[in-house]
């Protein structure tokens, strides 16, 4: 069931993404030659006006094929003939739909809840030297740590893990006022029985809080921002060397994560909620990652569009769209190679378990 859910989820997110391009193209007067759900040979095809709608046999992906998307054409309703701002809207629309989908999923999960867990200080151990009248106190809600916003309770451990040190900058909310502590000594260095040093913080956090409808909407906003930020943190870790190819995962690995999450749940309802949360996380990640300025991705196409418009304004000459198509074609090949490597790694790790 987890595998089926994972396949349906990926297919749904890609369908929603392509639907965004499709709706924006139609609204902009751009001709859509085909709107397909899934890939491979067509099972069902139906021509409606200028567009062929098809359902294909391989339940992965989908596409929105617009006239003149990667080549020059004389069709006045082609993608290349549309105003530059309309093309920009069309390119961004797919990621916008994924972002909106993630927000809706998080709203479905949060709105029925009666309480949320605030990142508030709950208890301090005797070893804590920063718990006093002029330091942190029970009930302080952490709003910022080492320059990073704290949106949800797990953010505290995430930021502390990314910044393993004794002193931290922390901002808390106390009695409606923000209080900032700079270079606060929040941890002690201990040595275990094997002689390995580790940091011990000596405090617990996470306090359940009743919340009204507006508070729930705000929590949906915070979760969304948290997931957007997680993409940036992941990219930082990759660029800094804190993470590598072994830490990357693709559809197969994500389905395995879903399965593990479902197996650890205490009930079917909790298992479904866990998988649905991962779906929201994936929707947000797909939205942000797809807008990165990388050839073959929508973000790369946006950069190409803006550069083309700027060059044509300066030179007053029309650029041949095929050259941009070559760049995105090369980017697509490299992207597919990376995806194949990650797929092989995920499958190998499953059989290794």
Cross-sheet strand order for the largest sheet? 5-4-6-7
Euclidean distance between termini CA atoms = 20 Å
Topology as a string of helices (H) and strands (E): HEEHEEEHEEEEEHHHHH
Bin the strand percentage: 15-25%
Largest sheet: 4 strands, antiparallel
Shape: elongated
> What class do helices, strands and sheet pairing give?
alpha+beta
How many strands appear in the DSSP assignment?
Answer: 10
The oligomeric state of the chains shown is single chain
Report Rg.
24 Å
Helix content: 40-55%
Q: What are the segments in which pLDDT stays under 50 over at least 5 consecutive residues?
A: none
Written account of the structure:
The chain is an alpha+beta fold. It folds into two domains: 2-110 and 282-352, no CATH class; 115-210, PDZ domain (Pdz3 Domain, Roll). Helices cover 50% and strands 24% of the residues. The chain is built from eight helices and ten strands. The strands form four sheets. The protein has a four-stranded antiparallel sheet, covered by helices on one side. The protein has a two-stranded antiparallel sheet with strand order 1-2. A two-stranded antiparallel sheet has the order 3-10. A hairpin with a 5-residue loop joins strand 8 (188-191) and strand 9. Helix 1 (2-27) runs parallel beside helix 6, helix 2 crosses helix 4 (213-240) and helix 4 packs across helix 6. It is elongated. It starts with a helix and ends with a helix. The model has no long low-confidence stretch (mean pLDDT 86).
